[in-house]
Structure to design on (498 residues):
């Protein structure tokens, strides 16, 4: 079901909707809209909130039957926290809380946007509000015999509006749709998204979006000498694919490469994972899903930059044909890699993709990859590791993530750790052999394939999947990275090489 968002200046008690959602600040201070409902409630809302133990803390919500004089069927009091702390990120989380709380409501009217301080950016907050409503109501039900999609069809945003705010809402819907596609792909069982099927899903997604799609099959991957993709893919019955997608608007300003790890299932290969370590490894294509999802909205959002996506897709399996520890691969750029651990496969396929991106002469490259368990140890499940070879470009990525409401945090790529990947027989090996700093050594490995092109790397091993509902995140695949990439390409500035 697609949700439509419209603006209206109707007074909150008069608006016709299943539910009227109004903000309440910390310490039960009634926000815009809540105050106008209050006068119709016999005894006032204060007594009700106290009895319900509702304090206005951000993300909490309590449903009140609509009193006489209020046209909506019910009123949802939504805690938004202290007034000065309300920003787009808070609005997104609170909108998601509303959607999650009201799975049966078809129409919701809300004054939530008016909780924003007067100096807040109302257009950004409108986008965040739409994202929150759509993403908080996300469900993956493809294989459920029972279970219903959220009923929400219409959100009426009350208060000051105008064309720019409506454009913010529309942008939020478009971005959320892209995020939901990435979530669907991550949540799809690995048996239903082998590389060929994943590539076909990408073609279907991008048909008619002004993005051209090139799918390399096994023969083409051989011809192009993508040795990392071939080596990782050789143990699986499901042959690999390499999907290259191009958005090239007229008069483009600059050119960016988006690279995404597309391991449709990561068993570890012969360096096999434990049973529990494999449970979530259908998530290992979350980087590729984020890249492809982003590509699908560029034209709709009027992005003026040329954007090319590179998504290698493989299944990492153990078998009689699988790559063995000690085997040597030749990557697209000619470098040789001794594969000592077949579970460090992401960097091998990314090495090919980064090499191709470098050949194509972009102004900057960013890759997204569920690359290391070590990054999850370092930053937890909700924060991505940000690495790179160019301070200015890394700062653009950090900034984009911040505006998008996705958490990233910088990690270093110390030269001192490079020698740990020296190989006895090849140019480098794919693991350091040490126990510590695995997110950094993976980053240092990737750096060997980007030359001097400004490059940033997001290790999304933690945030690609959520272990519980939280704000706009729903348990399962999160689509992490789509929002950051959309922001990044929308405001791209060519990095001056540092
Ligand atoms: N896909 C995994 C990384 C991962 C682990 C993502 C846990 C999400 C949650 C990656 O391919 C991998 O297995 N990396 C190894 C690298 C090691 C062998 C150097 C890891 O992190 O253990
Ligand atoms: Zn692995
Ligand atoms: Zn992996």
């Amino acid at each position: 079901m697609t949700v439509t968002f419209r603006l209206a200046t109707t007074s909150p008690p008069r608006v016709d909707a299943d539910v009227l959602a109004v903000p309440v600040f910390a310490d039960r201070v009634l926000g815009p809209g809540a105050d106008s409902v209050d006068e119709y409630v016999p005894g006032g809302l204060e007594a009700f909130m106290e009895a319900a133990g509702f304090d206005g803390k951000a993300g909490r919500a309590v449903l009140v039957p609509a009193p006489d004089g209020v046209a909506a069927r019910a009123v949802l009091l939504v805690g938004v926290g202290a007034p000065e702390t309300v920003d787009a990120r808070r609005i997104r989380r609170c909108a998601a809380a509303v959607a999650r709380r009201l799975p049966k409501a078809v129409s919701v009217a809300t004054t939530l946007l008016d909780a924003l301080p007067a100096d807040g950016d109302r257009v950004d907050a409108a986008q965040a509000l739409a994202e929150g409503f759509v993403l908080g109501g996300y469900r993956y039900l493809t294989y459920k015999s029972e279970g219903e999609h959220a009923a929400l069809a219409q959100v009426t945003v009350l208060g000051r509006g105008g064309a720019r705010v409506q454009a913010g809402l529309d942008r939020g819907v478009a971005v959320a749709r892209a995020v939901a596609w990435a979530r669907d792909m991550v949540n799809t069982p690995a048996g239903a998204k082998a590389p060929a099927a994943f590539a076909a899903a990408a073609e279907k997604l991008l048909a008619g979006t002004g993005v051209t799609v090139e799918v390399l099959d096994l023969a083409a991957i051989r011809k192009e000498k993508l040795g990392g993709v071939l080596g990782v893919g050789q143990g699986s019955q499901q042959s690999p694919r390499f999907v290259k997608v191009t958005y090239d608007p007229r008069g483009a300003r600059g050119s960016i490469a988006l690279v995404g790890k597309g391991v449709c299932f990561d068993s570890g290969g012969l360096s096999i994972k434990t049973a529990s370590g494999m449970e979530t490894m259908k998530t290992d294509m979350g980087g590729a899903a984020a890249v492809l999802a982003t590509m699908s909205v560029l034209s709709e959002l009027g992005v003026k930059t040329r954007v090319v996506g590179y998504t290698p897709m493989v299944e990492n399996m153990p078998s009689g044909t699988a790559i063995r520890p000690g085997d040597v691969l030749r990557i697209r750029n000619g470098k040789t890699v001794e594969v000592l651990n077949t579970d460090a496969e992401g960097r091998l396929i990314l090495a090919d993709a980064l090499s191709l991106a470098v050949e194509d002469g972009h102004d900057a490259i960013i890759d997204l990859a569920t690359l290391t368990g070590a990054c999850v140890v370092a930053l937890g499940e909700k924060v991505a590791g940000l690495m790179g070879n160019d301070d200015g470009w890394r700062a653009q990525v950090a900034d984009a993530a911040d505006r998008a409401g996705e958490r990233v945090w910088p990690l270093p790529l110390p030269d001192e750790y490079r020698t740990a990947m020296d190989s006895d027989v090849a140019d480098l090996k794919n693991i350091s052999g040490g126990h510590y700093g695995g997110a950094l050594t993976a980053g240092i490995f990737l750096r060997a394939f980007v030359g001097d092109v400004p490059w940033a790397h997001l290790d999304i091993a933690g945030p690609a999947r959520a272990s519980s509902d939280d704000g706009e995140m729903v348990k399962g695949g999160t689509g992490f990275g789509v929002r950051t990439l959309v922001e990044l390409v929308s405001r791209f500035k060519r990095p001056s090489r540092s």
Q: What stands out?
A: The longest helix spans residues 163-187. The first strand starts at residue 4 and ends at 8.
